[in-house]
Amino acid sequence: MLRRKCKAAVMAQCRHCWRLYQATPSHMQTRQFKVAVIGAAGGIGQPLALLLMTNKLVTELAVHDIEPTTGFRKDLSHMDTGCQVKAYFGSDQMKTAIKGADIVMITAGMPRKPGQTRDFLFDTNAPIVAKAAALVSEHSSHALVGIITNPVNAVVAVAAEAMKKCGRYDPRRLFGVTTLDVVRAEKFIGDHMEINPRKVRIPVIGGHAGTTIVPIFSQCQPPFEGDKECIESIVKRIQTGGDEVVKAKAFKGSATLSMAYAAARFTNALMRGLKGEPGPPECAYVESDATDSPFLSTPLTFGPKGIAKNHGLPELDEREKQQLKVAVDALKKSVSKGVKYME
Ligand SMILES: NC(=O)c1ccc[n+]([C@@H]2O[C@H](COP(=O)([O-])OP(=O)(O)OC[C@H]3O[C@@H](n4cnc5c(N)ncnc54)[C@H](O)[C@@H]3O)[C@@H](O)[C@H]2O)c1
Ligand SMILES: O=C(O)C[C@H](O)C(=O)O
């Protein structure tokens, strides 16, 4: 049947002044996105869900946790943002939450306590990530997957192996979320230079733990103002930002609100890519051939299939080259640990 172009004008009422205005009929609106948050009832999951509810690109939000999510969903469902929220809980419902999702953000798993390293969480969190990754492969293989769960450096490799086992691994679609390192770098540099942190752009490459976090001050925009000692002290603060929060929260978890903010920024960048309207490059931990480490965070431009362009290593000064070398040695071990776990 030949389809005629619909010229119908739909009148809608402005919620502020009550005047009628011409609106786009719903069948002509551009398709927007279903995002699933796994581990949604947790410290990061709840504020992330809240931020995603307010993003106009998200039309369906699926919240899943092993803990009940019904009350949390009811709460979100009263928001007049135009995003429909659906709740799922228990291991059996994870697949339904994931089904048809354009983006799956995985934040399920244990956070660390003072004195623990992120690596300490591996045994608990690796099976959770492996299961979620396998379900994405089986039920929504086109989805872009952001892994927030620690230790990111190792569990992203776990997810990749789980997807390979299902025969559905696409390296353009799997990301370890390292945006919090970028957010911290921009904030600490902005404060130091007494400028708005939102005006700062700096690539933070490597991984997401201690010395694997490599902020590239030589490429900071606007150019960084400060001496070598000053750079060293801010680098150290970015690398230990997570420890700073873990210590301050004193056995009540790790970064949740700043992480939710960072994850919402990252999810928004992925959605802009899916729409074919990418913003500036964002760093994330992805399969990479830029160094000897099979995974590395570098600046990426997103597109309809995930990574449209991996910009690879930025230009590095001598100090940054040394830092990257240390990072790559550690990352190779973390990735091997993840791969071995899935053998
Ligand atoms: N990538 C980063 O920059 C970054 C930053 C902060 C925290 N993290 C990590 O994110 C993870 C979550 O942190 P949090 O503070 O939200 O922890 P949390 O304990 O508050 O929340 C985790 C949630 O995951 C749920 N969960 C556990 N197993 C699950 C499963 N099998 N299926 C579904 N849900 C499950 C729990 O019920 C809980 O609600 C931790 O591993 C933490 O280390 C990463
Ligand atoms: O430090 C942690 O354990 C959480 C997270 O990785 C962070 O950087 O804040």
Write structural notes for this entry.
- The protein is α/β, with parallel strands linked by helices.
- 38% of the residues lie in helices and 19% in strands.
- The strands form 4 sheets. The chain has a 6-stranded parallel sheet with strand order 5-4-3-6-7-8, sandwiched between helices. Strands 11-12-13 form a 3-stranded antiparallel sheet. A two-stranded antiparallel ribbon has the order 1-2.
- The longest helix has 24 residues, at 318-341.
- Residues 111-112, 118, 150, 180, 241-242, 245-246, 254-255 line the site of (2S)-2-hydroxybutanedioic acid.
Give the key terms:
alpha/beta, binds nicotinamide-adenine-dinucleotide, disordered N terminus, 10 helices, binds (2S)-2-hydroxybutanedioic acid, single chain, 38% helix, 343 residues
Give the arrangement of secondary structure elements.
Elements: E1 10-13, E2 20-23, E3 33-38, H1 45-53, E4 58-65, H2 70-77, E5 84-89, H3 94-98, E6 103-106, H4 122-139, E7 144-147, H5 152-165, E8 174-176, H6 179-193, E9 204-206, E10 213-215, H7 228-239, H8 241-249, H9 257-274, E11 282-287, E12 295-303, E13 306-310, H10 318-341
Parallel strand pairs: 3-4, 3-6, 4-5, 6-7, 7-8
Antiparallel strand pairs: 1-2, 9-10, 11-12, 12-13
Bound molecules: nicotinamide-adenine-dinucleotide and (2S)-2-hydroxybutanedioic acid.
